[in-house]
Each structure stands twice: as structure tokens, then as C-alpha cells.
Design a protein that fits this description.
Elements: H1 10-29, H2 35-42, H3 46-74, H4 76-92, H5 100-116, H6 120-130, H7 135-164, H8 166-187, H9 214-228, H10 232-250, H11 252-262, H12 267-292, H13 297-314, H14 325-337, H15 342-353, H16 357-386, H17 390-408
Helix pairs in contact: 1-5, 1-6, 1-7, 1-8, 3-4, 3-5, 3-6, 3-9, 3-16, 4-5, 4-8, 6-7, 7-8, 7-12, 10-11, 10-15, 10-16, 10-17, 11-12, 12-14, 12-15, 13-14, 13-15, 13-17, 15-16
């Protein structure tokens, strides 16, 4: 008689990973709805507050390629637990802030490092260790957790900040991060062997995979970067994805709410619109993944960046105190395009770099966050100096056109030719 439990351990692990990733995305997005309250209380400039978001975004990307090495050494459960505690401390301690450098340290460094430890490398680690079958499905669902986090937390945080003050909102984020810790401790396991089973869909008689040591993992990440840096395709992908980050997380994700508020729209309403972007983001990502199997990925990237650029050029004319049909159309369209760039970018990394593709994508993703960081602080400076975000939208739209051209110039041999 088969004594194994009917529910494979891989599914509780994936469920806890989803909850942690939802939280990480929501915690990172929370500062965007606190820009105005912090400015009103402390008098800090938009650029200063945006700098904290910029540090957050930058560390989220830079930490990501090395997070797998730390998970190899300490285990997923310890790393994710530590990351959640760091996020909880970073958010909770903000209620004691008296100087802007403390905002940079807490929302920037603490939350950035914590969220970065649960980025795409966490998704890759969970799926590679726990799943043989359904890897693509689980990977897609966990990636979509970022959109879900934005959907869940932004309206909640905005509502708490509006009704009870930004300190209550910060404490809510802190408590939410802390609440996930017991789930991680109880259900997240590093390897199937830890609970006497094998990966979902794996041959029970097959030997368990051999994990690399943390030193080799970190060295491999650096080595792959050095090799990829000699390839023109890497730089075209990295530059395009940097513009992708600048035009999404850095600009829309950070400044859409305060920009809408500048035009008389309540912050809670603007946060709700941004959350809707998350809903359509999930649908857009799924469709983009399906298209990537059927259409040349570089063509898809060219189309996505062109359409995104056009929408950003129109956005300044759509802001108003109320949500009119053109703004609803923008939300739907932009949501579908938000991370539609990810599947074709991953596909091009795999085609161009073979077995090193996932690691190369980790570095390309780091460039995404570098672009987001520059856009976050740059848009804040633009608002401070011009009294409006309009120049930032126009520059971002033009940069998307550049990204479209760069994407179309990518030359990757077909898998059969390699």
C-alpha cells in the first residue's frame, strides 16, 4: 500500500512561496502611496522620498542574482524567514523616523534587501527543487504573485494612510510580513528529501539532484556575467529591460499615485487604479507566454515597447480628478503590457545563452531594477523642479521607442543552428 500523503509536499511549499512573494511585491510597492503623507509631515522633497524607493528597487535587482547562493548555503526557509523579518523591521521602524536618512535606510536598504531575497531566484529555486512536472505552470503562477501583491496591498495601504495616517499603514505592512513567518517555518522545506519524498513528478527511484555549493553558485553567477558581457545580444536585452523597469516599476509603480493626486484624484482611487493594472498584468503575462511559443520573441518585444511608449505619451492628457473612460482604457492597456515583456526576454536569453540563460536573465533583471531606480528618483526630481511629472512621461515614452528599436536589432541563432 502506498503510504505517501495524497497531497504532495510540493504544493504546500508552492503555496507558501506564493504568499511570501505576494507579500514581497506588496511591501515593495507600499512606499508609492506614502510619498504625499511623508512630504506633508516632514517637508521632505519628492526626490528625497523617491530616493528611498530608488534604493529599494536597485537592491531588489542587485541582490537577486546572489540570492540563490545564499539559499544554497543557509536554505530557503532561513533566507525567506530572515527576509520577512528584515522587511517587517524596515517598515515598522519607520514610525520612529525623524530624519530622511532613516527613510533611506529602512524603506530603501532593509526592505530592498529583504524583498530582493525573495525575487525571481526564489521562484527558480522552488520550481527546480520541488517540481519536475508542472514547472512552467508553477513558475508562471509564482511570477504572477507580484501582480497579486500589488493588487492586495496598494488599496489597503492607501486607505489606511488616508484614514488613519501613514504610521498605521507602515505598521500594517510590518505586521503582514511578520504574519507570513510562521507559515514559512511550518511549511517551507528546502528539499523533498527533508520530508522523505521526491520532487513532484520525479521518478521515485532516481537519485536526488546534487546541489552546488554556495561558493560555486556565486562564482558561476559572476563567470556567466563576464562571458555574457562579450555578447552584443546581452547588452541589447539588458538595455531594453532597463527601459522596461524605468517605464513600469520606476515611473508608473512609484509615481502614478502622487501624479494622479496632483490632478485632484484621491490617493485611494489612484491606488485602486494601479491595483487594477495588476489584474490585467496577470492576463497579459499568460497571453504573452502563449505568443512567445508562436511568434519571434524580438518582434513581440518591439511591439510591446512601441505600444507602451505610445501610451505613456498620451497619459499626461488623461489625468483628472475623476476616472474617465480614456483613463480606464489606459489602465487596461497598460496592465496587459506591464510584464508582457518577461516571457519573450526569458526566451531570448535561453536561445542566445543556452544553459546559462536563466543566470543571464538574472543579470538582465538586475538591469531592469537599475533602470527602475534611476526613473524613480529622476521622476521625483522632475516633479520638484518643474512642478509636474509631464516631462517624465514624455521621456519614458521616447525611451520605449528606443527599446523597441534595440529589441528588433537582436540577432539570435535558432536552437537548431546552435
Amino acid at each position: 500500500m502506498d503510504s505517501r500523503p495524497r497531497l504532495h509536499w510540493a504544493w504546500p511549499v508552492a503555496a507558501v512561496a506564493f504568499v511570501a512573494l505576494v507579500g514581497a511585491a506588496g511591501f515593495r510597492a507600499a512606499p508609492s502611496v506614502l510619498i504625499d503623507p511623508l512630504h506633508q509631515e516632514f517637508g521632505w522633497s519628492t526626490a528625497t522620498i523617491s530616493a528611498a524607493v530608488s534604493i529599494n528597487l536597485l537592491l531588489f535587482g542587485v541582490i537577486s542574482p546572489f540570492a540563490a547562493a545564499l539559499m544554497e548555503r543557509l536554505g530557503m526557509r532561513r533566507v525567506v524567514t530572515g527576509a520577512l523579518l528584515l522587511i517587517s523591521a524596515g517598515s515598522g521602524l519607520t514610525v520612529f523616523m525623524t530624519a530622511s536618512w532613516q527613510l533611506l535606510l529602512l524603506w530603501g536598504v532593509f526592505v530592498g534587501v529583504g524583498a530582493g531575497s525573495m525575487a525571481l531566484t526564489f521562484v527558480a529555486t522552488v520550481t527546480s527543487r520541488w517540481f519536475v512536472k508542472r514547472q512552467g505552470l508553477v513558475s508562471g503562477v509564482l511570477t504572477a504573485a507580484g501582480a497579486a501583491g500589488q493588487l492586495v496591498f496598494l488599496p489597503l495601504v492607501a486607505g489606511l494612510a488616508a484614514d488613519h495616517g501613514w504610521r498605521t499603514a507602515s505598521l500594517a505592512v510590518s505586521g503582514a510580513a511578520l504574519a507570513v513567518v510562521p507559515l514559512v517555518v511550518l511549511f517551507l522545506r528546502d528539499n523533498p528529501a527533508d520530508v522523505g519524498t521526491t520532487a513532484y513528478g520525479a521518478d521515485p527511484d532516481a537519485p536526488p539532484p546534487v546541489s552546488a555549493t554556495s561558493g560555486r553558485t556565486a562564482l558561476r553567477a559572476i563567470t556567466v556575467l563576464k562571458q555574457a558581457a562579450h555578447d552584443r545580444t546581452f547588452w541589447l536585452l539588458a538595455a531594453g529591460f532597463a527601459i522596461c523597469g524605468a517605464s513600469t516599476n520606476g515611473l508608473i509603480g512609484t509615481h502614478f499615485v502622487p501624479a494622479a493626486h496632483d490632478h485632484g484624484m484621491p490617493s485611494t482611487t489612484a491606488a485602486g487604479l494601479l491595483a487594477l493594472v495588476g489584474i490585467f498584468d496577470v492576463a497579459g503575462t499568460v497571453v504573452s507566454g502563449w505568443l512567445t511559443d508562436k511568434v519571434d520573441p524580438k518582434i513581440l518585444l518591439g511591439v510591446y515597447y512601441s505600444l507602451r511608449g505610445a501610451s505613456l505619451l498620451v497619459l499626461p492628457h488623461l489625468f483628472a480628478a475623476t476616472t474617465e473612460p480614456p483613463m480606464w482604457a489606459f489602465i487596461v492597456f497598460y496592465g496587459l503590457d506591464w510584464v508582457a515583456t518577461v516571457p519573450p526576454t526569458v526566451a531570448l536569453c535561453r536561445r542566445a545563452f543556452g544553459a546559462d540563460g536563466p543566470i543571464v536573465f538574472g543579470w538582465v533583471f538586475a538591469s531592469h531594477q537599475v533602470g527602475a531606480a534611476f526613473a524613480a528618483v529622476g521622476a521625483g526630481l522632475t516633479r520638484d523642479h518643474h512642478g509636474s511629472y509631464d516631462p517624465a512621461w514624455y521621456v519614458a515614452g521616447a525611451l520605449c521607442a528606443v527599446a523597441a528599436v534595440m529589441s528588433l536589432r537582436i540577432r539570435v541563432a535558432s536552437p537548431d543552428a546552435r
